[in-house]
Amino acid sequence: MKIYENTGSKDTRSGFGDGLTELGKKNEKVVALCADLTGSLKMNAFADNHPERFFQVGIAEANMMGIAAGMTIGGKIPFTGTFANFSTGRVYDQIRQSIAYSDKNVKICASHSGLTLGEDGATHQILEDIGLMKMLPGMTVINTCDYNQTKAATLAIAEHHGPVYLRFGRPKVANFTPENGTFEIGKAVMLQEGTDVTIIATGHLVWEALEAAKTLNEKGISAEVINIHTIKPLDEAAIIASAKKTGCVVTAEEHNYLGGLGESVARTLAMHHPTAQEFVATQDTFGESGTPAQLLEKYGLNAENIALKAEKVISRK
């Protein structure tokens, strides 16, 4: 079993900020827009280095999406930045009509997603954004797991033509993927091969999946762990191949089980290789105020619950 090490916990939003800063230096077409949350999105360095390419629109997220869409007509590559709740739910009509329907080359970059936003509570903890965005035709949906992968994804989406939703988070989490690694949109990452159960995870729960695999290994259970960083387009071939090998699947995500990664995996399996599946996700509920650790434990979004679900789904083979 391959052992992954936390090389030092870092926040994924800093991965976005550092990636954007690097893009600013090497691609003059990249512009950045922020809705009064420059510090929270770690966009300060880009703003300081390229003031002529940074646009602070204030608390006017819908206007920000419209401006970004317009900028693409002149060949710019706009990166918008605000919290995930404000990047999707608040501006869904503008994204649908002005960006997705028109196939505009806008990169919607969303921080503070999921429960790990923490103490700000349910009004800010969006748990349905993946579903909202993946249902838009032509929208690429990416949910990164750590600092290194978020930075790599930020660089990669600048080279991809078309609308992208890039989702990341607020707290410091384990940083375990390779530094300066490549990021291939739509390509799953096999983190660990196994024979008894497949664990498919995204975002902050990828590390929890690896920790769960350690626990299962101690019990003699061989878990295959796959990092699905791109939820749309989904790497169906990787999912089907693993399910055929292990015979059962657990999906893990910091999102509602309705509309998220688990649902996309279930659809894939139902169409191509019906397989027993268990879901680690929020159960059609809003969040609440608390520390990230408290909330992940209460809602079962942790290694312990992933391991329990793995044992349960193995019993259903």
UniProtKB/TrEMBL annotation:
Gene3D superfamilies listed in its UniProt record: 3.40.50.920, 3.40.50.970
Name this protein carries in UniProt: Transketolase
Classification via CDD domains: TPP_PYR_DXS_TK_like
Pfam family, one: Transketolase_C
Family affiliation: Belongs to the transketolase family.
SUPFAM superfamilies assigned to the protein according to its UniProt record, in alphabetical order: Thiamin diphosphate-binding fold (THDP-binding), TK C-terminal domain-like
PANTHER family assigned: PYRUVATE DEHYDROGENASE E1 COMPONENT, TRANSKETOLASE-LIKE PYRIMIDINE-BINDING DOMAIN-CONTAINING PROTEIN
Chain ranges passing through the membrane: none
Record's keyword terms, sorted: Thiamine pyrophosphate
